[in-house]
């Protein structure tokens, strides 16, 4: 009866109950939708970031901290070999690729563009760039004077696949160098700036141009994103133990943009949860206070019959708990159904600083469903607490006098 | 409960007693003395009718007897035990174990059926479900509502509601039943039936009844008549025809 009496009271005041459930469920559903969108955006950015940086990168602290005036941070082949041996024994390791980056000037006719040349190992699956190619082909291991350029750079310099370019650079030893290049492919990134300033060369050719046999970093691919931190710690310990002065950084440490955005998303959802909690709290507080006030005489009767204050509190708090449970459940179901329908429509939008639109979708996972459910539940329970306490403390004679 | 069937012949110490009971209300700057030094005692099986005009202090007296209100001065003793120092929880436990209440406006819980309303005091006593069901069925049978167990209060007439309230007051086997104007919202015929029921239950169960009323017809059922006027009690003589009113 302690459970059924509150349920029947809710049923008796159907209009008020429906209003309360609507308020709680709306708050829960809005939280669920926003969190689902936030998680989708976070997931997309994670994917893009990992595609760009790999799971881990290993390089000299001088490179990370930009504390070297020359190229002492370059990793010689013998060190690279030791690093590879360490990597292959890690359980999360899937593959690795080496990179060498250096600045240069790209010229096409009278037009020039300062770029960052990224020398990569063509055909290495760790950072597969083939899906980004929108014209021409990806770099091949046997390529020499070949280059991949971004879509924005191609537009800026009016270039197409097969067009020649001149690339000028300063070598590791400080000498000037220049080479003709042929555009083998045009890639696209999300960021217009990255498309404009990044070109890709084959690693061996890049080393030849730059005058080094070393690389500046090793990019590591892992079997699972969730294993990033564990793998970083193990590999770093291995490097330290082997006396190799290199530092491991994770994909999220390498992308300050991701860290900032992730923090922003957390703050956004935190603020929204707080707003929903406050809104639900005050509306339900008002509704329950009125509802309980209307039943003052009934409460007086129950108390006169020997119901203790604690038992009255329990009865009315259980009523709030039913509202909380029903409201949060309806909110979750409504939010999930809305998300499914929304995802089916496939609305697109263009995030700031990006070129291509992305599909605006709402992720539905336990991680996006449970927190809004808890927010709706807790907000309603808290709002039910005060009127339940007040109701239980009514003086019996005063309650019985109420008409 | 006491004896099953027949008049109650058990008499012992006082079931219910008040000593110098006073209740003063503050009305703005003015003190209103609702009860002034009332001494009263009822033994087990007494059927006491307290009458008096409106505003004489009848309901205040009943509220103090039922320990839902506290006196300004004096003491209410139930089975000889003082109540003034008891906590709210102790008073609630005392009400649930010892006192049955019948209200003028029935005060049934609207969301519960007739049977569930009657069952409520047994639920407070944490009796097992089979025993609750048996006692509820017996009590509703006794008040003539065996075929209306599932009806909600709004599906019952005034007389039926008051009989449910009487069943609720008696089902847990209290020693004392306090009724506040139990016939005030009933027509005279139904009121008569309810009073006859109270009288029968008093006789059969040997329960102490204190009935507050301003209805002279109710006084006809009294073994003892108390008049209350300006917050003071006086015992009145009872007709020899007591018990024949039904």
Q: Can I get a quick summary?
A:
The complex is a heterodimer of chains A (403) and B (246). In chain A, 55% of the residues lie in helices and 19% in strands.
Proportion of beta-strand residues of chain B: 25-35%
Total strand segments of chain B: 10
- The count of strands of chain A amounts to 12
Major interchain interface with per-chain residue totals: A-B, 24 and 28 residues
Category by helix and strand content of chain B: alpha/beta
Number of helices of chain B: 7
The ordered H/E elements of chain A are: HHEHHEEEEHEEHEHEHEHHHHEEHH
Compute the average pLDDT of chain A: 88
Strand order of the largest sheet of chain B: 6-7-8-3-9-10
Low-confidence stretches of chain B: 1-6, 240-246
Please give the alpha-carbon distance between the first and last residues of chain A.
Answer: 26 Å
Helical residue percent band of chain B? 25-40%
**Helix count, DSSP H or I runs of 4 or more residues of chain A:** 14
Structural class of chain A: alpha+beta
Order of helices and strands of chain B: EEEHEEHEHHHEHEHEE
What does the radius of gyration of chain A come to? Answer: 31 Å
- Radius of gyration of chain B, in Å, reads 17 Å
